Amino acid sequence: MNSFNEGEAELLDIRVPKETAVWQLNFGLHIPANELPARLDELPKDKLLVVACPLTDRSNMARCYLVAQGFNAKYLQGGLLGLVDRLKGVGAQDISVSAAFNR
Questions:
Q1: How far apart, in whole angstroms, are the C-alpha atoms of residue 8 and residue 4?
Q2: Prediction pTM value
Q3: Are strands 101-102 and 73-76 parallel, antiparallel or unpaired?
Q4: Would you place residue 90 in the very low, low, confident or very high pLDDT band (cuts 50, 70, 90)?
Q5: Among 42, 55, 77, 80, which is most exposed with the fewest C-beta within 10 angstroms?
Q6: β-pair partners for 30
Q7: What single string gives the DSSP state of each residue in the chain?
Q8: pLDDT score, position 72
């Protein structure tokens, strides 16, 4: 599954501003979890949303909310910290995009 690489999926970073001030991502959408209800119109309805936070707790709650609102959403297994850890060194070449998505 190469949905992200083919433009069929969008990473949704739901971290709060204090978290994003510590480390930035140069890709994906950035909407803090507490702002999601007011900013749903900014989310694509035609793409898979992969919700991400540092671990998985908030992203799974946000995923549940987005699914209830009619979006196709999953969360990033292992969170952003897990993704960054996997991107270090030669391990990045073995990343399977489909294995990173979860329900």
A1: 6
A2: 0.78
A3: antiparallel
A4: low
A5: 42
A6: 13
A7: --TTTTTSEEEEE---HHHHHHS--SSSEE--GGGGGG-GGGS-SSSEEEEE-SSSHHHHHHHHHHHHTT--EEEETTHHHHHHHHTSGGGGGG--HHHHEE-
A8: 97
Radius of gyration of the chain (CA): 13
Is 9-36+48-102 in CATH node 3.40.250.10?
A: yes
- Are the C-beta atoms of residues 67 and 94 closer than 8 Å to each other? no
| 8-11-1 Cα angle (round to 5) | 45
Q: Rounded to the nearest 5°, which phi and psi values hold at 2?
A: -115, 35
CA angle 22, 42, 73 (to 5 degrees): 80
